[in-house]
Design a protein that fits this description.
Blueprint: H1 16-32, E1 37-44, E2 48-55, H2 61-65, H3 68-75, E3 81-83, E4 92-97, H4 106-110, H5 113-117, E5 123-129, E6 134-138, H6 139-142, E7 145-148, H7 155-169, E8 175-180, H8 204-227, H9 233-240, E9 251-257, H10 259-280, E10 286-292, H11 302-307, E11 310-313, H12 319-326, E12 339-343, E13 351-355, H13 360-373, H14 382-391, H15 402-412, E14 414-415, H16 417-424, H17 428-440, E15 454-455, H18 460-467
Parallel strand pairs: 7-10, 7-11, 8-9, 9-10
Antiparallel strand pairs: 1-2, 2-4, 3-4, 5-6, 5-13, 11-12, 12-13, 14-15
Length: 469
């Protein structure tokens, strides 16, 4: 029921006198620098008003864009953004913050006629564009999405809007969610909702195992899809209706908030799993939504970035951060509180959107409602998977280099996969597997934060006595 969500404000009035005065300031600024151009149109959005400047024939656009700081000063604006030119038009856009911002609610997006007319279990509400039109997307066409923004920018609210959109649009057998929350606070409200494929994941090690399992699930799905001569999940689900004993495959949406926490501890394993899923999983119906408030090159690596085509950036600290997320500047000029730039499926053109807002009470009401409909049926229990994988490791038969590797690690007084790679000239996977074995046998301690080597817990004498070497 839409009544679980708050209604939008009834009325929002444009301040025509204020807008007229801003147009006059823009035109006066252009004239003072002898630039033959004038303001010809404006559009009032929820957060900013875009003024369109039409330069005379032969006027260089760069002359207008170079006045960014002068416009900002004379308009007394907290910040402005120039779009030069506006896509599909022969005008330059200057986006100026409104005196009063309008709160955009999730309810008004999902109640809109355009949203309701679009039929997909994976449609998600994002907000309103600069013209006040609803903006929504289909995760299956976005493929995978990267969401970034600093604290208080609206990133977490956007993620909640995406999750609630799915709860409103899809039955639990149509879309399953995997929620990975290393911060342990963002997704606790969604515990036990019926759409969960697995319990909410809080532990980085369990998150790493979950991503690994998803690559195996992707392979299993491709085998099923191939077995009926289908091309993707949609055609498989259509064909299986005429065949016996074939399971329905729901879409799987994996939401990770915060990626930086995982990359600090398990960068190689996480990057490898994300790369496989993002490169191959679309046809198998598995989609990633990855969020971070630390958009550094160490977190959003080239491999991750190149394989996640859709980007949403909220306000960030610098133009460098903006470039890492969007391959473009501009996100550093955003105004916070849901103001975003959207690049969908690799498109260079950025769309400015005021993100929909949903508060904690609304999230709680919707979550509680869906929990009351039915209990969750988990297809995957991460801890069982980890135990099974660990039991598959055999000490005696696993690796002929293991004994030499242990002795080397004890001699060095610290352990890391990269050291083993260099010393024994082996690949990362083999080195990481030996490190995992050493941890399992309490020869070394657990992974520490950052890239610090692991602590060695045994002497050579203790190792030889315990393992009869």
């Amino acid at each position: 029921s839409y009544d679980l969500l708050n209604k939008p404000d009834e009325y929002f009035e444009e301040d025509h006198e204020y807008i007229k005065s801003q147009m006059e300031i823009i035109d006066a600024t252009l004239a003072s620098f002898n630039i033959p151009a004038k303001t010809v149109y404006y559009t009032v959005g929820p957060t900013v008003t875009r003024f369109e400047i039409e330069p005379e024939q032969g006027t260089k656009v760069s002359r207008i864009t170079s006045l960014q700081d002068d416009f900002k000063l004379r308009l007394a604006a907290s910040d402005i953004r120039i779009e030069a030119p506006i896509s599909g038009k022969s005008t330059v856009g200057i986006e100026v913050p409104n005196k009063k911002r309008r709160l955009v609610t999730l309810r008004e997006i999902i109640e809109s006629s355009a949203y309701r007319a679009y039929k997909s279990p994976l449609k998600v509400a994002l907000g309103l564009d600069i013209a006040g039109e609803p903006v929504f997307s289909d995760i299956s066409s976005m493929t995978h999405a990267l969401i970034a923004g600093s604290t208080g920018s609206g990133k977490s609210v956007c993620i909640n809007c995406i999750i609630l959109s799915i709860l409103y649009n899809a039955l639990p057998d149509e879309v399953k969610l995997v929620l990975i929350d290393p911060k342990k606070v963002e997704f606790s409200v969604y515990r036990d909702i019926p759409h969960l494929l697995a319990p909410v994941v809080n532990d980085p090690k369990v998150a790493c195992a979950t991503l690994k399992w998803l690559t195996e699930e992707m392979d299993r799905r491709y085998a099923l899809i191939e077995s009926v001569g289908a091309r993707d999940i949609r055609s498989y689900n259509a064909k299986r209706l005429h065949l016996e004993d074939l399971p329905k495959l729901p879409y799987i949406v994996v939401v990770i908030d915060e990626l930086a926490e995982l990359m600090l501890l398990y960068s190689h394993e996480v990057e490898e799993s994300i790369q496989r899923i993002s490169q191959m999983a679309r046809a198998a119906g598995i989609h990633l939504i990855v969020a971070t408030q630390r958009p550094s090159a160490e977190v959003i690596t080239g491999i991750i970035k190149n394989n996640i085509p859709s980007r949403i950036s909220f306000q960030v600290a610098s133009a460098i951060d903006s470039r890492i997320i969007l391959d473009n500047v501009g996100a550093e000029k955003l105004l916070g509180r849901g103001d975003m730039l959207l690049s969908e499926n690799g498109k260079q053109q950025l769309k400015r959107v005021q993100g929909a807002f949903v508060n904690e009470e609304e999230i709680e009401r919707v979550s509680q409602y869906v929990k009351e409909q039915m209990p969750p049926e988990y297809a995957f229990i991460p801890e069982d998977y980890i135990n099974k994988k660990e039991n598959e490791i055999t000490f005696e038969e696993d690796d002929e280099l293991f004994d030499d590797a242990v002795r080397y690690v004890i001699e060095q007084g610290e352990a890391s996969a990269s050291k083993l790679q260099r010393r024994f000239k082996i690949g990362y996977n083999r080195a990481a597997r030996m490190i995992d074995m050493m941890e399992m046998y309490n020869i070394i301690g657990p992974q520490q934060s950052g890239s610090k080597p692991r602590e060695v817990l045994m002497t050579i004498d203790e190792y030889e006595r315990l393992f009869k070497r």
